[in-house]
Specification:
Elements (H helix, E strand, L loop, with lengths): L7 H6 L2 H10 L5 H12 L6 E6 L6 E5 L2 E5 L6 E2 L6 E9 L2 E7 L12 E4 L7 E4 L8 E5 L2 E6 L2 E5 L6 E5 L4 E4 L6 E5 L2 E5 L16 E6 L2 E5 L4 E5 L7 E5 L5 E6 L5 E5 L2 E5 L7 E5 L3
Antiparallel strand pairs: 1-2, 2-3, 3-4, 5-6, 6-7, 7-8, 9-10, 10-11, 11-12, 13-14, 14-15, 16-17, 17-18, 18-19, 20-21, 21-22, 22-23
């Protein structure tokens, strides 16, 4: 298994849990594991999850996985969206029916190993390459007020037109979250959650508790999930945290808070949903091992 070069320092100083999460985010899986993932996804179950989102147009839940983009609903099998079984890495919903993503072209697809930034305006049925095709593989994406913030190659990259990019701070991170106003950007690191108030050009010191993934749907509603799957909330932009509950399934793979009450989390056992601000979770779809 090859470790992404940009995360080697993170692995050296981080615990086993965060190291495992970083390796998973790099897509460091064997060919046998890839084949198993393809087969499981094709049969209507989910393998490794990289991202979650809800389309504001209709409330459907989308799951970006190692082998395609799926919709999930309680009591139903996951459904592949379109015909692309690409490895969707960074993924975020930007508007009604509009998502941006990154990752790797699926086996035999003819698409590049690094997709750069791709965009869909029909809820994932078709995708258009916007920039950095064959060059970039964003492992985390978030957006606010029309600006996209990405983590790729050990650095923060920012674009307001999806075509030209401004390279900003270099750091070893797992996930990004920007507040709705776009004034503060958070990154999860081995030192804790670090914050930037200048658009990702500089970051302060890491703050505990350690979070693996963060999501910021409203100014006073920030959510984080630890490497063991414990969900916390912050009403002051990450200065202080209140532990809420442990999401079933332990180690997390993705977190998205749609608003202060509606939260999605993917763990080792499935995709889970909360409608009460993170107090309780119910399973939307199981994950194949």
């Amino acid at each position: 298994m090859t470790v992404c070069p940009t995360v080697r320092p993170l692995l050296a100083i981080a615990g086993t849990s965060i190291a495992t999460l970083v390796l998973a985010a790099c897509g460091g899986e064997s060919s046998d594991a890839n084949a198993a993932a393809d087969a499981s996804d094709a049969s209507g179950t989910l393998s490794h999850v990289h991202g979650l989102g809800v389309d504001p147009a209709d409330g459907r839940v989308y799951v970006a996985t190692h082998s395609g983009l799926y919709t999930v609903a309680k009591g139903e099998k996951p459904k592949l969206v379109g015909d692309r079984m690409d490895d969707f890495m960074g993924f975020t919903v930007t508007d009604k029916g509009t998502f941006v993503a990154s990752g790797h072209g699926g086996p035999g697809s003819g698409r590049p190993g690094n997709l750069g930034l791709i965009e869909t305006k029909d809820a994932g049925r078709t995708w258009t390459s916007r920039s950095l095709s064959r060059e970039a593989d964003f492992h985390s994406l978030d957006s606010a007020k029309g600006t996209v913030y990405g983590y790729e190659g050990g650095r923060i990259r920012v674009s307001s037109d999806f075509e030209s990019w401004d390279d900003r701070a270099a750091l070893e991170a797992l996930d990004l979250a920007v507040n709705p106003s776009g004034e503060k950007l958070l990154a999860t690191t081995a030192e804790g959650v670090v914050a930037s108030t200048d658009g990702g050009r500089t970051f302060g010191k890491g703050a505990k508790p350690m979070q693996a993934f963060v999501s910021w749907p409203a100014e006073k509603s920030l959510f984080g999930i630890s490497t063991s799957g414990k969900l916390s909330s912050s009403a002051d932009g990450g200065t202080s945290w209140k532990e809420l509950t442990a999401v079933p399934g332990g180690q997390p793979q993705a977190l998205t808070a749609v608003n202060a009450n509606h939260i999605l989390a993917a763990t080792m056992t499935g995709v889970y949903e909360s409608r009460d601000g993170g107090k309780t979770f119910s399973e939307l779809a199981p994950r194949t091992s």
